[in-house]
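Recall from the previous lesson that a structure prediction takes nothing but the amino acid sequence as input. Here we apply that procedure to Spheroidene monooxygenase, putative from Psychroflexus torquis. The sequence below is the only information supplied.
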Amino acid sequence: MTMSQITTLTVLSYKRFSNKFWALSMMQFGHTYMKSVKGLSFYKLMGSGKDNFNPFPDWSVYSVLQVWESEDAAQTFFETHKLSKAYQDHSDKMQVYYMESIQARGLWNSKNPFESTVNVKEMDPDSEIAVITRASIKTNMLLKFWKYVPESQKPLENTSGLIYTKGFGELPFMEMATFSVWKDLASLKAYAYQSQEHIKAIQKTREFDWYSEELFSRFRIQKKVTLKGF
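The prediction returns the following tokens.
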């Protein structure tokens, strides 16, 4: 395996109340475990919103974003670390997306954690693509943002080539992220550059300037690993 950076996004689903409560508690206590993880350069523990992108929490779905020095480091974590084992024990479903960065613009906590490792010109055009967008919403823009944005997301749900989408976040209402998976790069570009709803959303963002920090990133999905369920 190469030593180039790899990013993983783990999607976790819970059914029982006790496991949902455990998952919520790990939003705080999981940080202690992360400190002992070798080869980890960046991570985020995130909850999710109802109906894919909503300020109100979906207590049954959580995610863990991790940026690794190498694929070896990532696999060692998922195969041996006690935190990974705990996630498997408590969740009903656990799926890991291994992703290679194509391009990332913007900042996440004052830095861009994603190093480009894929030349898009040399990439298989049929490769599945993942997109992560995140933003810190200005306090004085919260009401205006949440009044408009959920409506702007509705057309995304029936978009051709879209495989999966979910809204995640570190902090409800203020620190938000979206994760989407696309059949290929052409499908993503068709939505980004031809969807009138998406274009309008971009215009609104520029008009109201409602983010204090934002980041947009594209990845090639290297593989999906199911550790439980699905």
